[in-house]
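Objective 1b of the project was to move from sequence-level analysis to a structural picture of ligand recognition. The entry below was assembled by the postdoctoral researcher (A.K.) and checked by the PI before modelling. It contains the amino acid sequence of the target and the SMILES of the bound compound, zinc ion.
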Amino acid sequence: MELSDCTSCADLREVVQITSPGQLAQAIRVVRGHLADGTLVEASRDIPGYLGLLQERGPWPDYIEHEFSCSCCGQRFRLVAETYHGAGGRWEPVVEARGTRSHVVPAA
Ligand SMILES: [Zn+2]
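Corresponding predicted holo structure:
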């Protein structure tokens, strides 16, 4: 575990399984709250404001996948939910493998 000691996103750094529409609504509500107070910023730049369009109680798109990052430490988080099949999904911190882009060896 190499996650930061940032206190801003400490509560967000645990995986939350989403197994019901109620839990998805709760997750969206929490995320929207953090976006509103600036704790999180949207990292999925290609679809700005996407989550803001979602209704707290649905209807939702069949599939939701959205990334956010902590405005303090940059830790990334992902909200994934497949609403079509019964709202199965999860909230999780995105843990990138370290060292994969630290040494770029130029081609000989
Ligand atoms: Zn943080």
